[in-house]
Amino acid sequence: MPELPEVETVRRSLEAAVHGARLARIEVRDRGFRHPVPASELAELAGGRIAALRRRGKVLLIDVEHATLEPRTVIVHLGMSGRMLFGAPGDPWATHEHVRFESDERIVRFVDPRRFGSVELTLTRDVERHDRVSYLGPEPLGAEFDGDYLHRITRKRRVAIRNFLLDGHNVAGVGNIYANESCFQAGVRPGRAAGRLSRDESERLAASVKRVLAQAIADGGSTLRDGGYTDSAGNAGWFQTRMSVYDRNGQPCRRCEAPIRHRVLGQRSAFFCPTCQR
Fold first, then answer.
1. DSSP 3-state assignment of 15?
2. How many Å apart are CA 89 and CA 109, to the nearest integer?
3. pLDDT of amino acid 30
4. Rounded CA gap, 241 and 85, in Å?
5. How many angstroms separate the CA atoms of 84 and 178, rounded?
6. pLDDT mean values, one per 10 residues, the chain (278 residues)
7. Residues 168, 209 within the same domain
8. Rounded CA gap, 208 and 116, in Å?
């Protein structure tokens, strides 16, 4: 599932290629998602200009300015298998391609084999009130998320710290891969009750979240064995080669060589070193 580093990588690849481009047309081939794609409203954006590409958590925000319309924002959630891929005008529709954004020089395809993603539209001034955005906590790479914040909001919370980090209400978009890796870097077991973290552990964990996410973005995200994720140019990510615990059950810890362990927390896999993490 594309998580924050993958969505940020996609955002950056799109920004480099289509920021400022004029939208010649937006076509919708399939509206059948969890949230129906607003085909007619998207079509009205033809002639507009892509003014900005932003990200909030795992959500991609495409701001469009138009001569006759109030500024709109296309809200794209990649779901489990969604991708935003480049193509050329006139290319045939690809398998599992559902929405196509076409400029004068290129197209951007929204491809989603499992169809858990979404493409929605709102007024730009209403983005922060949209259902996909309004509940989100602070950005983990922003100044608001730090050790003081993490220690303060975890008090008296019994939920496992890994699950706490996955809850977008607490922090936006960390995702399971990077929550597991951050817990390892901080020396904190993913099943520890969030409220039992000391102030020092909270500082270490917040710093680890920032460090792990920054490295993952620099590596272009993670492309796992399913091979599903790529950036918009079709490039795979490389962070999976750095993973210390995620999906390494039974393999030796890269620090102490103890076998990595696996457990299920809240129906999601957690991985940890029984020696390095307490």
1. helix
2. 11
3. 84
4. 24
5. 22
6. 94 97 95 89 98 98 98 96 94 95 95 93 98 98 98 97 98 97 98 98 98 98 82 95 97 98 96 98
7. yes
8. 30
List, by residue number, the catalytic residues.
2-3, 58, 268
| Segments forming the whole domain that contains residue 244 | 147-272
Contacts of 265 (CB under 8 A, 6+ apart): 160, 162, 163, 190, 191
* pLDDT for position 226: 65
Domain boundary among 129, 159, 184: 129
With helix as H, strand as E and coil as C, how does 189-229 read? CCCCEHHHCCHHHHHHHHHHHHHHHHHHHHCCCCCCCCCCC
User: Residue 271 has which token pair?
Assistant: 């991985």
What length is written for the chain?
A: 278
User: Token digits for 165?
Assistant: 């980090």
* Tokens representing residue 122 in the block: 């709102």
pLDDT of residue 172: 98
* CA pair distance 265, 59, nearest whole angstrom: 24
What CA–CA distance (Å, rounded) separates 29 from 273? 47
> What is the amino acid identity at position 170?
N
Return the bridge partners of 103, or none. 23
- CATH code at 63? 3.20.190.10
**Cα 24 to Cα 10, 47, 83, distances in angstroms:** 21, 6, 21
